[in-house]
Design a protein that fits this description.
By secondary structure, this protein is an alpha+beta fold. It has helices at about 25-40, 60, 80-85, 95-105, 105-115, 130-135, 160-170, 215, 230-250, 285-290, 295-305; strands at about 10-15, 45-50, 65-70, 120-125, 140-145, 155-160, 180, 190-195, 195-200, 200-205, 225, 255-260, 265-275. The chain has eleven helices and 13 strands. Strand 12 and strand 13 (about 265-275) form a beta hairpin. Helix 1 (about 25-40) crosses helix 11 (about 295-305) and helix 6 (about 130-135) packs across helix 7. The radius of gyration is 19 Å and the shape is globular.
């Protein structure tokens, strides 16, 4: 793609990436791809690998806007967003509250349940949980998740009480708040949102037991189907649900909503990612390409969501 004609309107762009969360490696890949895209287009870029001193350097770096490519705690959970607001620097994506609640899977689902949006049954797990009773309450099979992690880190499937306790212990290594969600046996979809546009949904297919870290970032066997194969009415319903979920949390700019069907074909919300991946295996670039945006155009559209 040729360079942007009017780069001055973007000013100096700080790209925050890397960081210290368990998703650091994914963030380095996402941030690296975005930095290269901006440089290709002639935009003044300041890469910032987020550490304990990064914010102290902002006055000397003097960015005009920030493009956030940090995944997980410390960048996707509202903390960086709050710091940038206090510094008066416009940033991409969702604000403080929306970022924080979307990052917390348990409280996000509690919120959706409260406003009447469909999400599978769930519960918090603790050391004194009655594992057998919990599994029965969730229908005999459950997905265990750290509440504040992404990229499927720390997730596991449980089909008996012993599995459930072991899955909780493993997830607890990553997060003090762990949840279990009723197993959904239908297909999984992801729906990207870019500004006020809902991009074409993608159907995800993997031979793994679920769409785990390996399936997301390492496997060449994972299948991404777009167009997703739903009929026009069903696809419209899926896109409408994704938009409702995104808007209900106060999200803005860009993001990705993950949805699954149950055995009867009903859609259920899983989560919202407010800073989705931008790697070679990532889903938002795939959906954007189906909608007619190449990678450089997508990065510019994301950058333009940075408003005060």
């Amino acid at each position: 793609m040729s360079k942007v004609t009017d780069t001055a309107k973007y000013g100096r762009v700080a790209v925050f990436y890397g960081g210290t969360s368990s998703e650091r490696e994914v963030s380095l890949l996402s941030g690296g791809a975005v930095i290269q895209s901006l440089q290709r287009q002639g935009i003044d870029v300041v890469p910032i690998d987020m550490d304990g001193t990064a914010l102290q350097k902002l006055p000397e770096l003097n960015p005009d806007r920030a493009l956030i490519m940090l995944h997980g705690p410390g960048g996707e959970d509202g903390t960086l967003q709050g710091a940038l607001e206090l510094s008066g620097i416009p940033y991409t994506g969702s604000g403080v509250f929306a970022s924080a609640i979307a990052m917390d899977k348990l409280r996000c689902k509690q919120f959706w349940r409260g406003v009447g949006l469909p999400t599978a049954d769930f519960m918090a797990l603790k050391e004194d949980t009655d594992w057998q009773a919990a599994l029965e309450k969730l229908g005999g099979k459950a997905m265990v998740k750290p509440s504040h992690e992404g990229s499927s880190i720390g997730m596991a499937v449980a089909t008996d009480a012993g599995d459930l306790e072991l899955a909780w212990r493993e997830a607890s290594r990553f997060d003090s708040l762990v949840m279990a969600e009723q197993w959904l046996s239908g297909p999984e979809y992801t729906v990207a949102i870019l500004g006020d546009e809902v991009l074409p949904p993608i159907l995800l297919q993997t031979d793994n037991s679920f769409y785990d870290y390996e399936a997301k970032y390492e496997s060449d066997q994972t299948r991404y189907i777009c167009p997703c194969g739903l009929d026009e009415k069903r696809e419209a319903a899926l896109k409408a649900l994704a938009w409702q979920a995104f808007e209900s949390l106060g999200c803005k700019g860009w993001g990705r909503v993950d949805v699954m069907e149950d055995a009867s074909g009903e859609f259920y919300l899983l989560e919202v990612n407010t800073v989705p991946g931008m790697t070679s295996h990532s889903l938002v670039p795939m959906a954007a390409a189906e909608a007619g945006y190449d990678f450089d155009a997508l990065v510019l559209k994301i950058l333009e969501t940075a408003v005060s």
